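Researcher: Please translate sequence to C-alpha cells.
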Amino acid sequence: MAPLPNSKDQTLFRSVLSFYENKQYKKGLKTAEQILRRNPKHGETLAMKGLIINCLGRTDEAFTIVKDALKLDMKSHVCWHVYGLLWRSVKNFGEAIKAYKFALKLEPDSANILRDLALLQAQMRDWNGYVESRRLMLGQKPNLRMNWTGLAVALHMSGNYEEAEGILTKYEESLKVQPPKDDLEHAEALLYKNMIIAESGQTERALEHLLSIEGRMLDVSSTLEYKASYLLKLGRNEEACEVYRTLLGRNGDNRAYYKGLEEAKGIKEDDVAARKKLYEGLAEVHPFADAPRRVPLDFLSGDEYREAAEKYIIRLIKKGAPSAFLSIKAVYKDTSKQAITLKVVEDFLAETRANPPADDASEADKTRHTENIVWALYFIALHYDYYRTRNLDLAFKTIDEAIELDPTLPELYMSKAKMYKHAGDLKKAAETMNTARELEKSDRYLNTKCSKYTLRADDNEGGLKLMSLFTRNEAAGGTLGDLLEMQCIWYLTEDGEAYMRKNMLGLALKRFSQVHKIFEDWHEDQFDFHSFSLRKGQIRSYVAMLRWEDQLRHHVFFRRAAIDACKVYTLLADQPHLGHASLSMGQLAEDFEKLSTAEKKKAMKKAKREQQKEEEKRKEEAAKRKDEANGKADDKVVDTDPKGEELVHTTTPLEDALKFLNPLVEFNPEFVEVQAIAFEVQIRRKKYALALKALVAGHKLAPNDGRVHEQLIRFRKIVDSLPSEPTDAEPLSDVLIAEFNALLPKDTNVVEYNQQYLEKEATNFINLRYGLQAKFFLNPEKKDEAAAELVKAVDLEECDIKEAVEGLKVLREWKASDEVLNKYKEAGRGRWPQATAFQA
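Model: Translation complete:
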C-alpha cells in the first residue's frame, strides 16, 4: 500500500506507534481513528487500531479489524507483524510464528520482526528455527555480544556443542581489548563455554579450559564445583580431595561436598571404619557445621551409633533446637536405631530431672534446666507421633507434660495439633494450631500452618480469614485475589480439596483451574527472559531455567491439582446431578439417590431451570461491569465466574478433564496414581486404546498395586463384552488385545483370579480394599460379604486412618446398610477413638 499522502498523517501514524509502546491506548485509538477518517483504507493504521483495541480487552473485535487490514494490504509487513502479535496475545504461538515468517519475507531486514520470531521459537523450543533466526540477528548486529551468546545458546540447546563453543571462541578472539577481571558478563560467558565443553563429554578439555580461566572467575563456588567434578571423573582423586576440602571450608553443611570427598578418597559405603574416621576429622575442622556430625548416624550402628547419636542429639536439645527430631528421623527406617535414639533421650531426661539446680542457683541456670527437660520431652513426643513408632497415647501424655512446664512455646502446640491430625480429629487439630498461632501472632509461618489446618478441617472461610491477616486485601476479590496474585498454589490446592470433600464441586474446580492457570503463567513468564537473560549475561541461569521450565508440570502441586480435577470431572460424568449445588450438598445428595427415576428427572429439570436463571443473572451483571469498564485497560480484572458454576455445569466433563490429564500424563508418567486416573478418564470416554496404554504403564510401574488389579478386571470385562459390530466406541486392534491378554489372559476366571489376589493381599489394607471393590464389581449381589470383609480389615496393622476413611467412602458408594456402616465406624473408633469420621 502507498504511504500516507501527507506529512501530517505520517506524523500522526508515528504518534500511534509511540502511544502503543507507552501503553497510552486511549490516545493511540483516538489518533488512529483520526487518520482513518481521512484514509479509511490505510491497512497499517487499521492494523494498529486493531492491536490497540486488543490491548483494551476486545480481542474478537481486534481480530476482525486486523483481518480487514490484511485484506486491504496483504503485502504490508506491519499488518502481518500485528497479526502475529494478536496470535501471540492469545497464546497461539504456532499461528504467531507463521505470521512473523510471512512478515519477514516481506521485510527481511526488520530487526523487530526477527527478534519477535526468535523469542517465540525459543518459547516453543523450535531450536533449529531459533538457530537460523539467531544467525540472521548476528549478521545484522555483530557488534552486540548478546547476539553471539544467543546463537551459542541456540546451538547448545539444539545439541550442536562444537559449533556453540566455536561461536563463543570467535567472539573472544574478536575482542581487541580484554575485558577487566570484574566484568561479570565476560566471566559468565567463559564459564558457560566451559559448561558446553563438559556437556559434550570432553571432561579433560573442560578441565584444561577451566584452569586457564580460573583466575577470571567471579563465581568461585561454581568454579570449584566444576573443577572437583572434572578431577573426580578423570580419576585425579588427590587433587579432587583438596578442592572438596576447599569447598567445605566455604560451606560446611553441603552434603554433596561430603559425598564427593568420600568418593575422591576411595571410601566405599560399606567401609564404616574409614567413613567414621573421615567424619570425626571433619567435625574437628568444622566445629560449627551440622553435617559432619549428622551424616555418620546414617551408617553407624550399635554402640557406635549410640555414642554418636548421644553427642549429636543432646547437643541440639541443649541448644533448644526444635528441629532435633526432624534432623534425626530419617534413621528410623532402621528399627534398631529407633529404640537406641529413644533410650538416649530418655536417659538424658532422667539424668536432668535427677540433678536439679541448687536452691541458690541463678535464674539463668534454673531456666536452662527447665528448658532441657521441655525440649527432651518435645523430642520424645515427636518420637511417639512419628508414623514408624506411633503411640498417640504416649505422645499426648508427653507433650502435655512439656506444655505444663512451658505453656508459652508455640512449637509444643504445633506438635500437639499434628497429633490430633494423626488421631483423626481435624477440628481439634485446627483449634490447637490456632492456640500456637495466638502465642506469636506476627509469625507468618504459624499463620500459614494454622490456615492449612483450618482448611483440612473443611473450614474454607476460616482459612481465608486467617490468610487475610498477612495480605493487603487490595486486589479484586479481596484476600483471595491477593493470594491469586501471589500465586499461592498450596492454599488454592488445599482450598479446592476442602471444597471437594464438601461436594462443592464448582468451587473445587475453580481452585484447581486457578492452579492450572498459575502453571501456565509460569510457563509464559519465561518469555521475557529469552531476551533479558542474554542482555544481562546470566547464561547458565537462563539455561537452567529453560530446563526447569521443560519439567514444570512435574511439580507436586500441579500433580495434586490435576489428579483432583480429573476425579471431579469423572464424578460429574458418572453423576451429573452433582453439578447442581441444590442436589449435591449433604442430605440433599443422599435424598436424591433415594428418589425414583421419574423423581430424579423432575429434580434435575428443576435444578436446570434454577441454573439457567442464575446464568442469566450472572451474564447481566457481567455485561453491566463490562459497560462500566469499557475502555479502561488498567482496571482490575473482575472474575465473572467466582464460584466455578460455568465449570461445573459443563456438558462435556470428560473432554474438559483432558486439559489437566494430557500434561499430567506427559510429565508424570512414573506415578501409578497418574496412570490410574488416566485410565478412569479414558475408559469413560470409550477411548479403549488410551485406557489400555495407561493400564499397561501402571502395571509396569506396580504390577501388584490394588488399583491396577481392580482396573485389569474391569477392562477384562469390557473387552469381553465389546460387540463385534462397529460402535461409537474406539475399536481395539488385535495387537492391543494381544497386549492386554498378556497381562490377563482371555480364558482367566476373573472371580477366582480376584479371590487369589484377596488371599495374597490379606494383610495389606489398600490392596485388599481394591480387591473387594473388584469383587463387588464382578458380583454386586455379594455386597454384604465384601462389606463384612472390609469391616474386618480395619483391624489390620497396615491400615492407617487415611485409608480407613477411604474404606468408609467405599461402603457408602456401595450403599451398604446402616448396620454395616455402624460396624465399620465402631471398628474405626476402636483403632482411633478421637477420629471424627467414625463418630456415630
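Researcher: Any highlights?
Model: The chain has 47 helices and no strands.
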